[in-house]
């Protein structure tokens, strides 16, 4: 019962669902991202060993009032699985750029 209560509490703390939650195929990775649309684009990146909800949860709603927020979960974080390749800052930057380029098209 304690587990159920904790799960419900976590689900409520996460807040409402984003306007758009999707996966994109970039550089061999199935990358998870969420978009809340309201203006010019603003890319939100989480910190290490983090997720969109944990690192960005409290700042997204205020930002989404004025910006089209694009929150991305990097390789091996949250709903984006790890794949058999090195994890580096450069690779995460390339993945982010590829996602944004594909989304723009």
Q: What's the CATH topology label?
A: Rossmann fold
- For the termini, the CA-CA separation is 47 Å
The secondary-structure element order is HEEEHEH
Report the CATH C-level class.
Alpha Beta
What is the domain tally? 1
**Rough outline:** globular
In what order do the strands lie side by side in the largest sheet? Answer: 1-2-4-3
Overall pLDDT level: 84
Q: How would you characterize this protein structure?
A:
The protein is an alpha+beta fold and about 100 residues long. It has one domain: Rossmann fold (3-Layer(aba) Sandwich). It is about 40% helix and about 25% strand. The chain has 3 helices and 4 strands. It has a 4-stranded mixed sheet. Strand 3, helix 2 and strand 4 form a beta-alpha-beta unit. The longest helix is centred in the last third of the chain and has 16 residues. About 20% of the residues are buried. The N terminus is likely disordered.
Keywords:
105 residues, alpha+beta, Rossmann fold, four-stranded mixed beta sheet, globular, disordered N terminus
Short description:
This protein is an alpha+beta fold and 105 residues long.
Summarize the helices and strands and which ones pair or pack.
Blueprint: H1 2-14, E1 20-26, E2 29-36, E3 40-45, H2 52-64, E4 67-73, H3 89-104
Parallel strand pairs: 3-4
Antiparallel strand pairs: 1-2, 2-4
């Amino acid at each position: 019962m304690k587990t159920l209560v904790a799960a419900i509490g976590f689900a409520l703390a996460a807040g409402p669902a984003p306007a758009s939650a999707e996966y994109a195929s970039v550089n061999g990775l199935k990358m998870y991202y969420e978009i809340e649309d309201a203006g010019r684009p603003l890319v939100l990146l989480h910190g290490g060993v983090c997720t969109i909800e944990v690192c960005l949860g409290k700042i997204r709603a205020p930002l989404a009032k004025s910006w089209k927020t694009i929150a991305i979960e990097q390789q091996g974080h949250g709903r984006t699985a790890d794949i058999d390749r090195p994890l580096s800052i450069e690779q995460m930057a390339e993945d982010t750029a590829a996602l944004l380029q594909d989304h723009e098209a």
